[in-house]
Amino acid sequence: MNEKEKVLKYIKDFSKINVTSICRKLNIDRANLLKGKTTLENLVKVKVEIQKSLIDMIEKNK
């Protein structure tokens, strides 16, 4: 894989990380989350999942 393909893959992987899919995975109402009408526990779960996704993406694209 050349450098251009690596960079493109990184960008595409980054675009796969989104709140909607994370909320769906965790069974959390996205609308309530974005309005702040959910529990702190749910907010933390989504935050942790975003962080995990970013770390995983970065590790895969080294």
Report on this model:
With 62 residues, the chain is an all-alpha fold. It starts with a helix and ends with a helix. The protein contains four helices and no strands. It has helices spanning 3-15, 19-26, 30-35, 40-60.
Main pleated sheet = none
Structural class from helices and strands?
A: mainly alpha
Strand content: under 5%
Can you tell me the residue ranges where pLDDT is under 50 for at least 5 consecutive residues? none
Distance between the termini: 12 Å
- The total beta strand count reads 0
Order of helices and strands: HHHH
| Rounded radius of gyration (Å) | 14 Å
* Gross morphology: elongated
Helix content: over 70%
In short:
The protein has 4 helices and no strands. It has 62 residues and is mostly helical. It is elongated, with a radius of gyration of 14 Å.
